[in-house]
Every structure is written in C-alpha cells, then in structure tokens.
C-alpha cells in the first residue's frame, strides 16, 4: 500500500512539473498582457489594463507583416497542395525502385536548412532574371514572389506526406472497377478518389498554411526589404519588447482554444452519428439539444463570449490607477532625493576643519621658451 501511495505521489509530482513546464510560460504571458507595466512582468503588479491590445494593433509594421504573411500563406496553400497531391499520386503509381528514388528527390527539400533554401532562392531567381534581361523592378526581385517560391519548394513535401499517408488506405480496385464500368479517368478521380482524399486535403491545407505563416529561416532572406509577421516580431524583440507581444499571445491562445473546442465538438458529433447509440436518440432526437451541441452553435457561442469579454475590456479605464502609480513613484523618488541630501549634509558636518597653515605664495612659472607668444593677449599691438 505504501509502495502504491509513493508511486502515486511521484506520478502526481511528475505530472505537475510536466504541465507547469508546458503551460507555465503561456500563463505568465497571459497575465503580463494585462499589467500596465511597460516591461512584461507579473510582480510588482501595477494596474489592470487592456491598452496593450491597442498598442499591438497600432503597430503598423506588425500589421503590414501580418497582411503579407496571410497573403503568402494562402498562396502557398493554393500552390503547394496540388503539387503535393500530384507527387503523392505519382509515387503511388510507380514501381518500388523508381518510387524510392523519386521519394528521395521529393523529400530532400525538407532536410535542407532554411538558410540555404533562402539564399539559393535569391541566387537562382536573380540569375534567371538577369538571363532574361529583367530589371530590378521585375517580379524576379520582388520579396513576396521570392518568399512564395522559396516556401513552396519545401512545404509541398509536407502536403505530399499527408496525401501519401491517406493513399496507403485507399483500395485501387475501386477506381479500376469504375474504369471497367465505363468511367473516364477524370470521372474516376472526381467521383471516387477525390472524395476519399477530402480529409487529407483539409489537413494538408491547414498544415501548409501554418508552415508558411510561422516560417522564419527561409523568409528572413527571401523577403528582402519587406517584412512578414515573423520577421517583424523578431525585429521587435531585438529592439526591445513590451507587453503587446503578450497581448498577441493571448489572441493566439484564444483562437487556438476556440478551434480546439469546436473541433472536439465536431468529432464527438461525428462519432455519435456513426455509432448510433442511445445518446444519438437522446440528444439528436431533441431539436433544442441537437442545436446546442452542433459545432456551429458552439462556435457562435464561444465567439460571442470572446466578443463580450473584448467589449468589457475596452470599457475599462486604467488612467486613474496609472496616475496613482506615477504619483507614488514620484513621491518615492522625492524621498530618496531628500534622504540623499540629508546624508550629504551630515557628511559635510562631520568633515575635519580646514588646515590653518599659511598658504604659500604661488610659484612664478618659468618663462616661456617662445618668448610669451602664447600668453593671453600676447599678440596685441605693442605687446
């Protein structure tokens, strides 16, 4: 019994340390986002404020970088997902030896460091632009195009891996039967293979979007004089941080939690509808309960809660508290100055009296070897 109790204590302690290590930084960032201190900290706590969210949205560099990142990420999804699907379909139709060779070629960009990919992208497209006579204002020297080209080279491999994992569960007899029944290859692909790949298409699109949005190593070279969200964040951290980054973390955590809850609701609804248990008739037989547990309803409710919290936070005015904190700091500074002045006066009073010895007459300086040409007013007429 004691042995079991000791094992339970160790497991509980390990779990506590694990979750503290995992979620501790996130909790700290959430708290610092609402502290009025100009430096991200929890203690000493000053005032509760939501002003750092306004500071975040007022940062033009971050907002322009966010817009650029969204444009690039959506473009990468549009290009990388079809390329990854084509690569996966090609690999599934080849023999074992040729498949292994082509797989090695297609997977290599993932293994190359992002720094190398970024520099090689600039060098390649710059040389290509010069070979066709393009000037420096053309697309071959545009940071957005270079970033898109550099990211697609390796993010397409991520999409290909997702499709390969899905295709391993596909039975090719289905498409062969459709072809035998008179369907064209295009019809077999659209009506049989493509519906089977829809979950993989969604996963690949989501993965490629995140991989593009958070990429830094390649983007920092290919974006040239522009900026994306990650490069703007890195620049802000290098030049000095403030709680506006904590406010950004709060927004990201909120979006992630809403997405996770909605996804969990969707998966549970899908499982209940598939199994057809008593819960299906009890919950989905009632129109009210069926509406409440629907993922779209849950999403609307969570979005409304987040919007209400945002509105209430915008109404909070921390001006009085900030002024009080400022007055306290000034009063403390004045006390320290007064204390320093008293110490200096006490030190002057405790000093020994000055010596009463006669002061010797100053020794006359030696005559200048230049005849006094450099003494004051030595160049006046008559001197």
From TrEMBL:
Pfam families: BPD_transp_1. InterPro entries: Bact_Polyamine_Transport (IPR051789), MetI-like (IPR000515), MetI-like_sf (IPR035906). Signal peptide: none annotated. Gene3D superfamilies: MetI-like. The keyword Protease does not apply. The keyword Transmembrane helix applies. This is Inner membrane ABC transporter permease protein YdcV. It comes from Roseibium aggregatum. The lineage of its organism: Bacteria, Pseudomonadati, Pseudomonadota, Alphaproteobacteria, Hyphomicrobiales.
